[in-house]
Amino acid sequence: MALEQQILAHAQAVAPAECCGLVVATAEGERYYPADNISVMTDTFEIDPADWIKAELAGDIIAVVHSHPTGPAALSIADRVGQRNTGLPWWLAVNDEIRRFRNVAPLLERQFEHGRTDCYTLIRDAYHLSGLELTDYPRTDDWWSAGDDLYLDNIRREGFVRVGPAAPPQLGDVVLICLGGTKACHGAIYLGDGYLLHHPVNRLSKRDLYSGYWQRQTHSIWRHKQWQQCDFTAISNDLAASSFSM
Fold this sequence. Notes:
It comes from Oceanisphaera sediminis. It holds the Pfam family Prok-JAB. Keywords: Hydrolase, Metal-binding, Metalloprotease, Protease, Thiol protease, Zinc. This protein is of the alpha+beta class. The chain has 2 domains: 3-101, Cytidine Deaminase, domain 2, CATH 3.40.140.10; 119-245, endopeptidase fold (from Nostoc punctiforme), CATH 3.90.1720. It has 6 helices and 11 strands. It has helices spanning 3-14, 49-58, 77-86, 119-129, 212-216, 233-245; strands at 20-26, 29-35, 60-67, 90-94, 97-101, 160-162, 174-178, 184-192, 195-198, 206-209, 218-224. The strands form 2 sheets. It has a 6-stranded antiparallel sheet. Strand 3 (60-67), helix 3 and strand 4 form a beta-alpha-beta unit. Helix 3 (77-86) crosses helix 6 (233-245). The chain is elongated, with a radius of gyration of 20 Å. The termini are far apart.
């Protein structure tokens, strides 16, 4: 039985409790090691330490697995805290499929490093947590002054459509902003209630009120065609996990 089929079979066998296990890289290839969920609650999981040790002895643990029998198709607040603690990808069995989540850095208070943790990385990672994969385009520092256009050259092929100028932003919309010129060289995500999530140059990623300077410098607002099918809960959970772990 294929790896993902084994995980889904395990999830179905223990529902309505959450299943849990580990994906291990062994000499024979990747294997799924099901584990006992020793949590006393049905809507959470805790891997039996004996099962974790067994998996470690078999090879390198490359992913933590668990299920959400009734959804949502996103990592919970506790899941994101747990993922940060393990430093591993987490796989989620939900709706008869496996969703794989990279161990992305917390969306808040990231250090700025152009091309690695910058405003586009923040958008890409937030959308990854929400179930939408955006291309990681190579970009040189100061690309906006070198004739390149990271955002407008690529945003439509990534599945976004421009929102009409009179339409208010909605949860998850990408807001493109001009900084000191007319080119859209900065991107942010609208969080609702008049707030943006963004990563300013050489500062920590943060929430900001979408007013004053940011509104005046707004170039355009973009909405992903599939956004109604994905879940903003994933972004909210990551932000809450940062508050929880402080």
